[in-house]
């Protein structure tokens, strides 16, 4: 850790810079490269300074600051952004974190808490490998034909389009997967090849073995090209694939097979969020109820497992409150029943937003992706930011 710890401060309030400088005055490795009271001058300095930690105030010109943070994220890869603000609503924090900030610090800046945060930032700043911030989202149902593949595909597409981050979509329906079909892909390699070679693939090789969806940040791992190969894939190999992907992807979406085996349980254990898919009819509800009971035995809590109703109609005979009473859990999301748009998308091998971006189901998926992303950010904040208050 011989490298200097470079710091830049952008805050209209000159006192902030003075306070931070005083807090860090005894640290010889810290190099405060500049304190600026306007965005333009501070951003101009970043291009000359290179790798640094930027403390940027978002209190007074919030919308403008969010745009600038996004600009920094896109154009200054070596800059670690920490936001400062005296406005700490969850909505504001989520917007700032989604824009690219990695820390959120409450003003006025308290010395003891600030120095704790500085040590955490240092650990990432000097680390040669990326800190694990990737989130794994799985779609699951123990009943076939419920629509979990369409949910996994459309959610992954929307996450990639919304965040502009790299998203991996994995088909773990190893014998009868449809992810590649839903996106009209003809993969040169699939999960069987990656599994066989995972110990020898570096990050670049792994990315090349995946199939990119059009000109987006979504990359797909399809089910085996040869069905016979599905039996040879092990839970340990899948775990290694997920571990490798987590280093370079912000989100991993897994379409998990309906059967329960060691591979399924490994993927579920490894997931940060499980979307348990059901529909508002009695057979599906009973099947989902058994699945919920199984999840409880695996110690999956309500923060990890969320109930999603697919093909939902307002005039359903079984109402949402009835379903919530059965499961003793709120319905996390409802996806509307739009048969024509969904079938057109499936038959053409495209996500629903390419059929009709204004259709209710397309708008629903956009909002759904935002909700999932915000939820995962909030969970991270609850473990990090709020624990520091």
**Oligomeric composition of the shown chains:** single chain
Alpha-beta content class: alpha/beta
Spatial strand sequence of the major β-sheet: 8-9-7-10-6-11-12-13
Secondary-structure element series: EHEHEHEHEHEHEHHHEEHEHEHEHEHHH
CATH architecture of the largest domain: 3-Layer(aba) Sandwich
How many distinct domains?
Answer: 2
- How is the biggest beta sheet arranged? 8 strands, mixed
Average of per-residue pLDDT values:
89
The CATH superfamily of the largest domain is identified as P-loop containing nucleotide triphosphate hydrolases
CATH C-level of the largest domain: Alpha Beta
Pick out the low-confidence regions: 385-389
Give the helix tally.
Answer: 16
Radius of gyration: 23 Å
How much beta, percentage-wise? 15-25%
CATH topology annotation of the largest domain: Rossmann fold
The total of beta strands comes to 13
Rounded to the nearest angstrom, the distance between the terminal CA atoms is 29 Å
- What shape does the CA trace take? globular
Short account of what is shown:
The protein has 389 residues and is an alpha/beta fold. 46% of the residues lie in helices and 19% in strands.
What would your notes on this structure say?
The protein is of the alpha/beta class. It folds into two domains: 5-128, Rossmann fold, CATH 3.40.50.2300; 135-383, Rossmann fold (3-Layer(aba) Sandwich), CATH 3.40.50.300. It is built from 16 helices and 13 strands. It has helices at 14-23, 39-49, 62-75, 90-99, 111-125, 148-163, 179-182, 191-197, 203-209, 235-246, 262-270, 282-297, 320-327, 339-348, 352-355, 360-383, and strands spanning 5-10, 30-36, 52-57, 79-85, 103-106, 135-140, 167-172, 211-212, 218-221, 251-256, 273-278, 305-312, 331-336. The protein has an eight-stranded mixed sheet, with helices on both faces. The chain has a five-stranded parallel sheet with strand order 2-1-3-4-5, sandwiched between helices. The longest helix has 24 residues, at 360-383. Residues 385-389 have low confidence and may be disordered.
């Amino acid at each position: 850790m011989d490298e200097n710890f470079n710091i830049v401060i952008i805050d209209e309030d000159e006192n902030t810079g003075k306070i931070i400088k005083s807090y860090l005055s005894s640290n010889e490795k810290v190099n405060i490269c500049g304190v600026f009271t306007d965005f333009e001058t501070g951003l101009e300095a970043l291009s000359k300074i290179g790798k640094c930690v930027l403390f940027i105030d978002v209190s007074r010109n919030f919308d403008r600051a969010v745009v600038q943070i996004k600009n920094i994220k896109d154009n200054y890869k070596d800059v670690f952004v920490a936001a400062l603000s005296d406005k700490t609503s969850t909505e504001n924090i989520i917007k700032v974190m989604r824009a690219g900030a990695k820390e959120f610090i409450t003003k006025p800046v308290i010395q003891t808490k600030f120095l704790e945060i500085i040590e955490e930032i240092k650990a990432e700043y000097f680390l040669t490998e990326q800190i694990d911030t990737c989130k794994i989202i799985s779609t699951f149902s123990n009943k076939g034909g419920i629509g979990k593949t369409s949910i996994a595909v459309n959610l992954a597409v929307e996450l990639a389009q919304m965040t502009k981050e790299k998203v991996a979509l994995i088909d773990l329906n190893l014998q009868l997967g449809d992810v590649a079909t839903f996106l009209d892909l003809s993969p040169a390699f699939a999960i069987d090849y990656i599994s066989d070679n995972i110990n020898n693939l570096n990050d670049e090789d792994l990315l090349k073995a995946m199939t990119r969806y059009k000109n987006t940040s979504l990359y797909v791992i399809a089910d085996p090209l040869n069905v016979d190969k599905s039996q040879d894939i092990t839970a340990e190999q899948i775990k290694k694939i997920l571990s490798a992907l987590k280093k370079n992807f912000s989100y991993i979406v897994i379409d998990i097979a309906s059967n329960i085996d060691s591979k399924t349980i490994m993927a579920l254990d490894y997931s940060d969020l499980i979307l348990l898919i059901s529909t508002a009819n009695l057979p599906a509800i009973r099947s989902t109820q058994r699945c919920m009971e199984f999840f409880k035995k695996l110690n999956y809590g309500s923060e990890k497992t969320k109930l999603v109703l697919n093909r939902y109609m307002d005039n359903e005979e079984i109402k949402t409150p009835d379903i919530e009473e059965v499961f003793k859990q709120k319905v996390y999301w409802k996806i509307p029943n739009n048969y024509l748009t969904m079938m057109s998308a499936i038959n053409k091998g495209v996500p629903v937003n390419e059929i009709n971006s204004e259709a209710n189901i397309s708008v629903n998926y956009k909002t759904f992706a935002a909700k999932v992303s915000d939820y995962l950010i909030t969970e991270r904040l609850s473990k990090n930011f709020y624990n520091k208050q």
